Each structure stands twice: as structure tokens, then as C-alpha cells.
Amino acid sequence: MRRLSFALASLVVPLALYACGDDDGSPPTSNDGAAPAQESSAAPDTSVDAGRDQGSPDALRCTQAELDAPCGDGGGDCTASARIEVLFPLGAAPAQYEPSCVKVKVGAVINFAGSFFQHPLEPLGGDTPTPIPLQETDPPVGASGRPELALTMSSAGTFGYQCVFHPTTMFGVIQVVP
Length: 178
Ligand SMILES: [Cu+2]
What we know:
This protein is of the alpha/beta class. The protein has one domain: Immunoglobulin-like (Sandwich), CATH 2.60.40.420. The protein is built from three helices and eight strands, in the order αααββββββββ. It has helices at 2-23, 48-51, 64-68, and strands at residues 75-77, 83-87, 101-105, 109-113, 121-126, 148-152, 157-163, 171-177. The strands form two sheets. It has a five-stranded mixed sheet with strand order 1-3-8-7-5. A three-stranded mixed sheet has the order 2-4-6, with no helix packed on it. A hairpin with a 7-residue loop joins β7 (157-163) and β8 (171-177). It starts with a helix and ends with a strand. Bound molecules: copper (II) ion. Copper (II) ion binds next to loops.
């Protein structure tokens, strides 16, 4: 008999909760947190400008103008450099990759330096296959004093990336030219 009572109680409680939730007239919450509806995409256009952030999950968020700008702290055309350091935070607070929009030549090394544990790196958008891996754990600390992931850009293409945790704050594009 005890067992039966327990079974009845476990049936009644969820029913009571359900009825209670129904009484307040609030709309269903099953859609909370869902991604916003995507705009229907027209014919594919693979140019960087066309891929700029317009709500598409794999949009590249650097313009070609940004990638063509003179190489500086913010990135740009760094095809004269054999190695680019892309810095991001060690702490949990998000901050944009520096630089975030970079153009280099085939053979250049992009050295990501920061906490991959706090800011997991993931490829997003652009050409495939991408040289940018999903990196969720910290590689060894390098000369920058931060965990470093050195990636050799072995083929031409345009490759997007972002932080898994802070995709609206931390994102970038590496364009590799012959
Ligand atoms: Cu992050």
C-alpha cells in the first residue's frame, strides 16, 4: 500500500504543477533560448563582404576593406609578416581578438595566444577545410606567457573563427593568399 501511495503522489504533484502553470495565462516557454529565425538565404555569394554578419550562423565578420587595410594592431594586410600573434584574454572576461581581421600569405603562422579554457576557439564560416581547429583546452604556455596554438596557413582561403563562449564579442577572420 505504501508503494501505491507513493506512485499516486508522484503522479499528482506534476499534474498539480502543470495546472498551476496553466492558470497564470503565461505563454509557453518552450521557445526560450532558441536561436532567432534565420533569414532565407538567396543564391550563395562567397565574397567576404557578402558573408559579413547578417544573422547567418557562419557569416564572416571582417570586411574585405578591413582585411586590405595597412597591417597594424587591428590587423589588415599583413602579407609581409611570416608570423602573426593573435592575442586574447587569459581571464574569463571576454575581449576581441587582437588582431581579429588578418590577411597573410600561404606559409605564414598564426599564433593564437590566450586561455582556450576560458575562451574555446572554434572555426566558423569561410572555406573548407579550415586550418583552424576546435581548441577547448590550453596548449603549453609559450613565449607570450600565455597558452599558444601556432597554426601554419598551408593553403589559400578565407577562414572565420570565434570564441565558443563569447561569439558576439570575440570573432575574426584569417584570409590566406598565394
Ligand atoms: Cu571568450
